[in-house]
């Protein structure tokens, strides 16, 4: 059952596009922090299958399977349906309803200036992205957040712009559709309190950024870990695959021969050690590398040990859920019911403010 103190906690919302099984970058960049947040906040975490359509509308054949894989990794990574709400975006129809209403008031210029819009237009040249769906994906993100009247959105520094446009859209909506004074308590004292209290003053509170630690996590080629680069280590990779992927991983380019001393601070392998290895192992690596006391193969072996140990409980939970597909469906369905119930509370206020019938 949900935690009895849920209603007293601040609300957090975040989601992830279903691009297939999650990798270490996804885990440390988001999921690892979500697991911690679920103990402190009222959390809603979803698989953003509608967002997948913004770029893969021409061939959506993998979206359902990828959605399942991401849901499995959510649960395997430690999201607990007893502590948070886990669901699939398209199962909560209020997301698309609010997105439509917000599209009526959002200037095109606001969407065109989003940094990732231009970046993806330049990078995804093999796809036709000249669609409203792609242009409007930041607005759908805003609807995802605002539909739950979220207090916080956990993001890294590079995603702050997405939360800022959500704040601007909420502000614009509240200017067009403020709550009517007739909605407030009649007592003058209570009205004054309502004016002061943000949550009573506006239908859509402006969410705050919850900056979460996101360590530098290079892929096996030294670039940012990304499926598009083919340099990932998946949460579900078995031990032999992990060791095989790490063996050719790039290291300090100045360390050409075994007896050349290296600099761990410019080595992508050491960047991973900082995240997954113990302080003792990191010290051994630092000393061994700078003195040429160890070779890169030995260093990578220690890293593989640490990564395998980190992923062992995650993979154990994944196997449990993989063997019980009906349980996963039950969790997602129950999560969608809980999410829709909370989303509808917001939509009742939105429709009333806009003069629409409930």
Topology:
Elements (H helix, E strand, L loop, with lengths): L10 E6 L7 H14 L4 E6 L1 H8 L6 H15 L7 E4 L5 H10 L4 H5 L2 H9 L8 H4 L1 H10 L5 E4 L4 H17 L11 H9 L1 H4 L6 E4 L27 H8 L21 H9 L2 H12 L5 H27 L2 H30 L4
Parallel strand pairs: 1-2, 2-3, 4-5
Helix pairs in contact: 3-15, 4-8, 4-16, 8-9, 12-15, 13-15
Describe this structure in words.
This protein has 358 residues and is mainly α. It has two domains: 6-216 and 325-354, HUPs (Rossmann fold); 237-317, Tyrosyl-Transfer RNA Synthetase (Orthogonal Bundle), CATH 1.10.240. The chain is built from 16 helices and five strands. The strands form two sheets. The chain has a three-stranded parallel β-sheet with strand order 1-2-3. Strands 4-5 form a two-stranded parallel ribbon. β1 (11-16), α1 (24-37) and β2 form a beta-alpha-beta unit. α4 (94-103) packs across α8 (137-146). 36% of the residues are buried. Mean pLDDT is 91; it is low at 1-6.
Order of strands, main sheet, comes to 1-2-3
CATH topology of the largest domain: Rossmann fold
Largest sheet: 3 strands, parallel
Shape, per Cα inertia axes: elongated
* Chain-averaged pLDDT: 91
Q: How many strands appear in the DSSP assignment?
A: 5
Output the helix-strand order: EHEHHEHHHHHEHHHEHHHHH
CATH H-level superfamily title of the largest domain: HUPs
Low-pLDDT runs of 5+ residues are 1-6
Backbone CA Rg: 23 Å
Q: Helix count? A: 16
Any guess at the CATH architecture of the largest domain?
3-Layer(aba) Sandwich
CATH class of the largest domain: Alpha Beta
Kindly name the structural category.
Answer: mainly alpha
Question: In the residues, how many domains can be counted?
Answer: 2
Percent strand = 5-15%
């Amino acid at each position: 059952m949900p935690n009895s103190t849920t209603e007293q906690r601040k609300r957090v919302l975040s989601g992830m596009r279903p691009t297939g099984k999650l990798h270490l970058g996804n885990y440390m960049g988001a999921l690892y922090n979500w697991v911690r947040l679920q103990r402190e906040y009222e959390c809603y975490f979803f698989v953003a299958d509608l967002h997948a359509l913004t770029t893969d509308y021409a061939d959506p054949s993998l979206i359902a399977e990828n959605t399942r894989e991401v849901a499995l990794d959510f649960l395997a990574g430690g999201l607990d349906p007893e502590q948070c709400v886990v669901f699939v975006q398209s199962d909560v129809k209020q997301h698309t309803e609010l997105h439509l209403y917000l599209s009526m008031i959002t200037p095109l210029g606001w969407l065109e200036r989003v940094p990732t819009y231009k970046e993806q237009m330049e990078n995804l040249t093999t796809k036709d992205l000249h669609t409203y769906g792609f242009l409007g994906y930041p607005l759908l993100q805003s609807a995802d957040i605002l539909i739950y009247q979220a207090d916080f959105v956990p993001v890294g520094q590079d995603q702050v712009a997405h939360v800022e446009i959500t704040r601007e859209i909420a502000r614009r909506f509240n200017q067009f559709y403020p709550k009517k004074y007739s909605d407030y308590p009649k007592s003058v004292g209570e009205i004054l309190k309502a004016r002061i209290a943000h949550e009573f003053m506006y239908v859509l509170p402006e969410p705050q950024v919850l900056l979460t630690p996101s360590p530098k996590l290079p892929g096996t080629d030294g670039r940012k870990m990304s499926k598009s680069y083919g340099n990932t280590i998946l949460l579900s990779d078995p031990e032999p695959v992990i060791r095989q992927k790490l063996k050719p991983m790039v290291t300090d380019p100045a360390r050409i021969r075994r007896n050349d001393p290296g600099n761990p601070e410019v080595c992508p392998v050491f960047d991973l050690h900082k995240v997954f290895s113990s302080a003792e192992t990191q010290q051994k690596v630092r000393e061994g590398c700078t003195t040429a006391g160890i070779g890169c193969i030995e260093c990578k072996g220690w890293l593989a040990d640490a990564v395998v140990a980190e992923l062992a409980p995650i993979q154990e939970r994944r196997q449990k859920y993989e063997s019980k597909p009906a349980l996963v469906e039950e969790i997602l369905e129950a999560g969608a019911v809980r999410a829709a119930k909370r989303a509808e509370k917001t939509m009742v206020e939105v429709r009333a403010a806009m003069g629409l019938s409930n």
